[in-house]
C-alpha cells in the first residue's frame, strides 16, 4: 500500500550537540532505510529517492559539519560520522536499518557496518565507497584542494541573496541542465547565514578533512572487503562536472574481482549527482534496493 509522502525533521542529541536530519513516512512499517549523503551535501539530497520508495520509511541525517549539523565540532572522521548515525538511530528508537550511501556517504556506510554491525541489515553503495587513491607527490595540506577543486572553493563563496545562490547552482554543469523540484529544495535547504553574505551550510574544514580519508587507509579496505553480501554498487557514467566519471569502469571491475559479494550496476545517462537527485536516477536504483530490502526482511523473519 502506497503511503502519503510525509516528511518531518528531527534533532538527535549527541554528547557535544545535536545531529539534525529528516525522515519520510516515519510511520511506515518494515525495515527502514538509512540514507547517507555525500561530502558537501545534506539530507535533502535524498528527496527523489524517498519519493520513489513510496511505502518505506527513509531516515537521513545532516552529517557533522553539514546542513543543520554544521555547528557540531570536529574532528569529522568517517568513523565519527558512523557513530553519530548510530546515536541518531538510538534517539529515533530504530534498531536496524538498510543503509544506502552516496559518494562519501557510501564510505560512512561501510564504517557504520564495521562498527555497528548489529544495526545494519544490508548495504548499497551509490557512486562511492570504493577507495579513491590520493595523488602521489602532493603535500598533505594541498590534497583537499587538488581532490575537490571547485567544490571546495564554493564553500568559501558568499552570495547576496537566495536568488544569487540558486542562480549559481542553475549554472552548475552537473545540476543545471537537470533542474527539478528536488534539486531546488536541496539548494534552498543548503543556504546558510544572513544576507548579504549567504553561503553553503557545509563547513570547509569538515569537507577538507573527509576528502583525504577516501583512499582506503586506516583499515577501510579491510572493512569494505569484509562487508557481508550482497553489496550493490551503482556506477554513474559521468562525474561531478557531468564529464569524466568518478569511477572508471576498469577500477570498478578490479574491485569486483577482489570482492565476490560486490554486484555492479551501470546506471545509464546520469552523473554523480543526478544518480540520486532525479527521478530517472532514483528510478534505476530503487528496484534493486526494494528487492534487497524484501530479502533482508525475509531473512530476519526466518531467523
From TrEMBL:
Coiled coil: none annotated. GO terms for molecular function: hydrolase activity. It comes from the Bacteria. InterPro entries: AB_hydrolase_1 (IPR000073), AB_hydrolase_fold (IPR029058), AB_hydrolase_sf (IPR050266). Residues 32-189 form the AB hydrolase-1 domain. SUPFAM superfamilies: alpha/beta-Hydrolases. Keywords: Hydrolase. GO terms for cellular component: membrane. This is Alpha/beta hydrolase. The lineage of its organism: Bacteria, Bacillati, Actinomycetota, Actinomycetes, Micrococcales.
Amino acid at each position: 500500500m502506497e503511503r502519503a509522502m510525509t516528511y518531518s525533521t528531527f534533532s538527535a542529541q549527541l554528547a557535544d550537540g545535536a545531529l539534525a536530519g529528516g525522515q519520510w513516512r516515519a510511520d511506515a512499517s518494515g525495515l527502514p532505510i538509512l540514507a547517507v549523503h555525500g561530502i558537501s551535501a545534506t539530507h535533502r539530497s535524498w528527496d527523489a529517492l524517498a519519493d520513489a520508495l513510496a511505502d518505506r520509511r527513509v531516515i537521513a541525517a545532516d552529517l557533522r559539519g553539514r546542513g543543520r549539523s554544521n555547528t557540531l565540532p570536529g574532528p569529522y572522521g568517517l568513523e565519527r560520522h558512523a557513530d553519530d548515525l548510530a546515536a541518531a538511530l538510538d534517539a529515533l528508537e530504530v534498531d536496524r536499518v538498510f543503509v544506502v550511501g552516496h559518494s562519501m556517504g557510501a564510505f560512512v556506510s561501510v564504517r557504520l557496518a564495521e562498527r555497528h554491525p548489529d544495526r545494519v541489515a544490508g548495504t548499497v553503495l551509490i557512486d562511492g565507497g570504493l577507495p579513491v587513491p590520493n595523488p602521489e607527490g602532493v603535500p598533505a595540506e594541498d590534497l583537499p584542494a587538488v581532490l575537490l577543486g571547485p567544490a571546495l572553493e564554493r564553500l568559501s563563496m558568499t552570495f547576496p541573496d537566495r536568488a544569487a545562490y540558486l542562480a549559481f547552482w542553475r549554472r552548475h554543469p552537473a545540476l543545471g541542465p537537470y533542474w527539478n523540484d528536488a534539486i531546488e529544495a536541496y539548494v534552498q535547504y543548503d543556504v546558510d547565514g544572513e544576507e548579504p553574505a549567504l553561503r553553503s551550510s557545509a563547513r570547509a574544514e569538515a569537507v577538507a578533512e573527509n576528502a583525504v580519508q577516501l583512499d582506503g587507509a586506516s583499515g577501510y579496505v579491510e572493512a569494505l572487503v569484509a562487508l557481508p553480501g550482497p553489496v550493490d554498487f551503482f556506477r554513474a557514467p559521468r562525474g561531478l562536472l557531468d564529464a569524466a566519471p568518478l569511477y572508471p569502469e576498469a577500477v570498478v571491475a578490479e574491485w569486483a574481482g577482489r570482492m565476490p559479494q560486490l554486484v555492479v550496476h551501470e546506471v545509464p545517462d546520469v552523473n554523480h549527482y543526478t544518480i540520486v537527485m532525479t527521478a530517472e536516477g532514483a528510478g534505476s536504483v530503487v528496484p534493486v534496493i526494494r528487492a534487497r530490502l524484501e530479502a533482508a526482511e525475509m531473512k530476519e523473519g526466518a531467523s
